[in-house]
Design goal:
The chain is built from seven helices and seven strands. With 207 residues, it is an alpha/beta fold. The strands form two sheets. The protein has a five-stranded parallel sheet, sandwiched between helices. It has a two-stranded antiparallel ribbon with strand order 3-4.
Length: 207
C-alpha cells in the first residue's frame, strides 16, 4: 500500500466529531477510510471491582490505554491489520470481542483527546479540532446519555458540571493549539467540513 494518511479529529464530547468523520468518509471513495475511535481504547478494568469501575473518570487521560492505541495505529500505518478492542459503557470494561480493522489509505483517529498524546500527534498528517459552544454540547450530551446510556437528566447535568466541564477545560480545550484546522459550530458547519474534505482529497495519494 502507498503512503497512509493519518488524520486526528479531536473536540469536546458532543461537539460533532462523529458528524465530521462521517462527512469525510462519505466524501472519499468507498472503503477508503479506517476509523480508530479513542473510545475503544479505554483501559481494561477486569481486575477492578464493579464499584471501582463505576468510579472511573472517563474524561481524564489516565482512563485510556495510550500504549495499545499507539501500537495499533502504527501497525495500520505499516500496512498490518489490527484487532481493535471494543468497550462497554454499561459494564465499564472491555468486551471479549474485537473488531478486525484492515489498513486503509486514510486512517482517522477520532476522540475527545485525539490530539493530546504527542506520539500520536507526531505521526498525524492533519490535526483537526471540532469546536462547539458548551451549551450545545451539554444538550447533545443530555440527549445521547438518556437514550443510549439510560441516564436521567439530573445525572447528566451533574456529571457535566462536576466532571465533563472541568476535564474539558483542563485537557481537551488546550489541545486546540495543536490543530492545523479548527471547525467552529461542529458538525453543523457545512462549509468548514466541505473545505476539510477537499483538502483531505488533495493530500492523499492518487485514488
Amino acid at each position: 500500500m502507498d503512503k497512509i494518511t493519518i488524520i486526528g479529529i479531536a473536540g469536546g464530547t458532543g461537539s460533532g466529531k462523529t458528524t465530521v468523520v462521517r462527512k469525510i468518509v462519505e466524501a472519499l471513495p468507498p472503503h477508503y477510510v479506517a476509523v480508530v475511535p479513542l473510545d475503544s481504547y479505554y483501559n481494561d478494568t477486569t481486575e477492578m471491582t464493579e464499584e471501582q469501575r463505576h468510579a472511573i473518570n472517563f474524561d481524564h487521560p489516565d482512563a485510556f490505554d495510550w500504549k495499545l492505541l499507539n501500537k495499533q495505529v502504527n501497525e495500520l500505518r505499516e500496512g498490518r491489520a489490527i484487532e481493535q478492542p471494543t468497550y462497554s459503557y454499561i459494564a465499564c470494561n472491555r468486551l471479549e470481542e474485537t473488531v478486525h480493522v484492515e489498513p486503509k489509505p486514510v486512517i482517522i483517529i477520532e476522540g475527545i483527546m485525539a490530539l493530546l498524546n504527542k506520539k500520536l500527534r507526531d505521526i498525524m498528517d492533519l490535526k483537526v479540532y471540532v469546536d462547539c459552544d458548551s451549551d450545545e454540547r451539554l444538550i447533545r450530551n443530555i440527549q445521547r446519555d438518556i437514550i443510549e446510556r439510560g441516564r436521567t437528566v439530573s445525572a447528566v447535568v451533574n456529571r457535566y458540571l462536576e466532571v465533563l466541564k472541568p476535564m474539558h477545560e483542563q485537557f481537551i480545550e488546550p489541545t486546540k493549539r495543536y490543530a492545523d484546522l479548527i471547525i467552529p459550530q461542529g458538525g453543523m458547519n457545512e462549509k468548514g467540513i466541505s473545505i476539510l474534505c477537499k483538502y483531505i482529497d488533495a493530500i492523499i495519494p492518487e485514488k
